[in-house]
Amino acid sequence: MLTTDDYLKILETCTIKGHDDAIIRALRYIDLGYPIMLYGPPGNGKTTIAEHLLTYLGGGKDTFYEIEGTEGMNEYHIIGGFHPLSMSGNSALAEQFVYKHGIVARAISDHKNLLIDEFTRAPSSAYSGLFLLLSLGKLPLEYKETTLVKPDDWILITTTNFGDEGTYRLSNALKRRFVPIKISYPSSSTERTLLSSITPYLDEKVVEGILTFAEETRAIWKKDRG
């Protein structure tokens, strides 16, 4: 279980400021064994926050794997499967198959935690095996009739824009397997405090201009999204 000192150190060492409440909420659910999904507008530090949490909780940057969702992903990339030993014109080798773990099975086998960035860029069908693993705690594999078992202390964090928007929309069943943690833009007062602390030499009018520009840019972006 995380201690108060753990919470304080994680917040103090995070380079993305202004999201203390969301980070604390994420840590509470991670501590209880839940996979979490950090969602919100792009460019506000979701991936950096996820990497920071995994680095601290695992004890280093080499304690987790990271993959970015893509449109061409399928269950082979996530869980694993058989593929030809050779993709060349050698017909003898092409008829032989080798089993390769996907990122989830590889992470669990190597005792690593996992970050899946841009989760919704891959179709929900790519996560069918992951869905069963999170639902049942185990998943039968094609390889030698083995079973992939999810460790109780395994940490899985995903990131996405606005929870279920991307190249694909997530199924409701898959979304329910994650605790959603919203990472929104900091409030104007928080941004003002952060900007003043980082650049105390700036004139107040310059600070006001930066904040106004940021607010107007976000308003235009939201309008373009419809």
What is the CATH topology assignment of the largest domain?
Rossmann fold
Tell me the fraction of residues in β-strands, as a range: 15-25%
The oligomeric state is: single chain
Named CATH architecture of the largest domain = 3-Layer(aba) Sandwich
What is the CATH superfamily label of the largest domain? P-loop containing nucleotide triphosphate hydrolases
> Could you describe the largest sheet, including whether it forms a barrel?
5 strands, parallel
Question: Biggest sheet, strands in spatial order?
Answer: 2-5-8-1-9
What's the total helix number? 10
- Please state the average pLDDT score: 88
Tell me the layout of helices and strands.
Layout: H1 4-13, H2 20-31, E1 36-40, H3 46-58, E2 64-68, H4 75-78, E3 80-84, H5 91-94, E4 97-101, H6 103-109, E5 113-117, H7 128-136, E6 138-140, E7 147-149, E8 156-161, H8 172-175, E9 179-182, H9 188-198, H10 204-225
Folded structure, characterized:
It is built from ten helices and nine strands. It has helices at 4-13, 20-31, 46-58, 75-78, 91-94, 103-109, 128-136, 172-175, 188-198, 204-225, and strands spanning 36-40, 64-68, 80-84, 97-101, 113-117, 138-140, 147-149, 156-161, 179-182. It has 226 residues and is α/β, with parallel strands linked by helices. The mean pLDDT is 88. It folds into two domains: 4-184, Rossmann fold (3-Layer(aba) Sandwich); 186-225. It is elongated and about 70 Å long.
